[in-house]
Design a protein that fits this description.
This protein is an all-alpha fold. Helices cover 58% and strands 0% of the residues.
């Protein structure tokens, strides 16, 4: 028979130094404001539907990750503007991990069957993920500018102001290209002085610049590495879009979206959008 000293226990004793009194000390729940966070789920279905909480939590957590994405992308953009490439790359590495988390979350929502979703969909009314201003902010930061999207948020002055500000600011890619220009690369003037409120368009002259970088990576390692980080970010973004499309397809088929879009056809067209076209075009020049 095993002795009491070696037998497994169903309980772990609290260590003497563990804090127990939070009448004056800061607790975990207070620091994270969990009272607010965990009371922010307000299902509307009548009679109540078990799966609505999944739908709400999925989208609320996505918005939290989008908030962090915006924070990291803004910081990376500022660092590039200061010619501080190394910490900017650290920010971009974190962005990629956040993107993976956002994409993985679709697997949870995919457990919602068409029959289950049909029970809660009427209570969404005209609300739709298309109306996520933080998602639009990420797109604007990466260069997919669309002035028409700003007007969608006329009902929310803070969201509209944020998007209008980002619309008129350079994107992450704009700041990267400006950094390259300051470092002596032959970035075309029309690229450096472009109207940043417009979606970015491919420049063949810039493809020539990146062809030089990819022809001799060792001579331009920091620039080369940043190019590949940006490609990773775009790949991750496309993977997120595709998983979104697939989950919507398996849940509602070809029905229109709750926000008035055509649904899967509208989502599929987003797969043709690109943030960094030269970084893909240059692949045809390598080797």
């Amino acid at each position: 028979m095993a002795s009491s000293e070696t037998s497994p226990s169903a309980q772990r004793a609290l260590e003497e130094g563990i804090e127990r009194d939070f009448r004056t000390n800061l607790s975990y729940g207070e620091y994270l404001d969990l009272g607010t966070l965990l009371s922010a789920q307000h299902p509307l279905s009548q009679p109540p539907q078990h799966d609505e909480l999944l739908f709400i939590v999925q989208h609320q957590t996505s918005e939290l990750w989008l908030k962090l994405l915006i924070h990291e992308l803004r910081s990376a953009r500022t660092l590039l503007a200061k010619d501080d490439l190394s910490p900017a790359l650290k920010r971009l590495a974190r962005v990629k991990h956040i993107q993976h988390t956002l994409t993985d979350q679709w697997a949870v929502l995919a457990t919602l069957t068409p029959s289950e979703y049909a029970q809660i969909r009427p209570f969404l009314a005209t609300s739709s993920g298309f109306q996520s201003y933080q998602y639009r902010a990420v797109e604007f930061l990466l260069g997919n500018k669309n002035a028409d999207m700003v007007a969608v948020f006329a009902h929310d002055p803070a969201a509209r102001a944020m998007l209008d500000e980002l619309l008129h600011e350079p994107s992450l890619y704009d700041e990267y290209l400006r950094l390259l220009g300051r470092r002596g690369f032959a970035i075309p003037t029309e690229v450096l002085e472009r109207d940043v409120t417009q979606p970015y368009a491919l420049s063949e002259a810039l493809v020539d610049v990146f062809a030089e970088v990819y022809a001799a990576p060792g001579d331009h390692w920091g620039v080369y590495e940043t190019c590949e980080e940006l490609v990773d970010i775009e790949d991750n973004f496309q993977e997120w879009r595709f998983r979104h499309l697939q989950v919507v397809t398996r849940t509602i088929g070809r029905q229109p979206g709750t926000g008035g879009s055509s649904g899967v056809d509208f989502l599929r067209r987003a797969l043709d959008l690109t943030f960094f076209p030269e970084l893909y075009a240059v692949r045809s020049r390598i080797g």
